[in-house]
């Protein structure tokens, strides 16, 4: 989501949620990425179903709190404070991106995933 504008992040979250809500309910959805915001921000609260945006409420759940096993606990909360090993992180991100059938751009050395929502 937008790095600088909270308003743009809220709008992006709303548009993304509207698309997710339009999908068949039986279709599993995983939404992950660099959200550039805190979970307690307006955008985070909206996505997690704790606030409204233009009369709409999101309904995502944070995969971290629902995980049976939590690895790399020290890597939690990457928003502006990422301290993980870059090589290990890049390998992990490549795996996630391949699994999501996305293209890997070797020029991008700065990717991280803030949250994984479902």
UniProtKB/TrEMBL annotation:
InterPro entries named among the record's database cross-references: Endo/exonu/phosph_ase_sf
Name the record gives this protein: Uncharacterized protein
Source species of the chain: Trapa natans (Water chestnut)
Lineage of source species: Eukaryota, Viridiplantae, Streptophyta, Embryophyta, Tracheophyta
């Amino acid at each position: 989501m937008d790095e600088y504008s909270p308003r743009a992040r809220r709008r992006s979250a709303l548009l993304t949620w509207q698309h997710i809500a339009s999908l068949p309910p039986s279709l599993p959805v995983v939404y992950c990425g660099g959200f550039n915001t805190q979970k307690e921000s307006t955008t985070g609260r909206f996505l997690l179903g704790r606030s409204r945006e233009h009369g709409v409420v999101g309904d995502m759940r944070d995969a971290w709190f629902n995980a049976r096993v939590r690895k790399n606990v020290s890597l939690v909360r990457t928003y502006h404070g990422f301290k993980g090993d870059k090589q290990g992180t890049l390998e992990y991100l490549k795996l996630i991106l391949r699994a999501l059938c996305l293209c890997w751009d070797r020029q991008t050395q700065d990717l991280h995933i803030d949250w994984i929502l479902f």
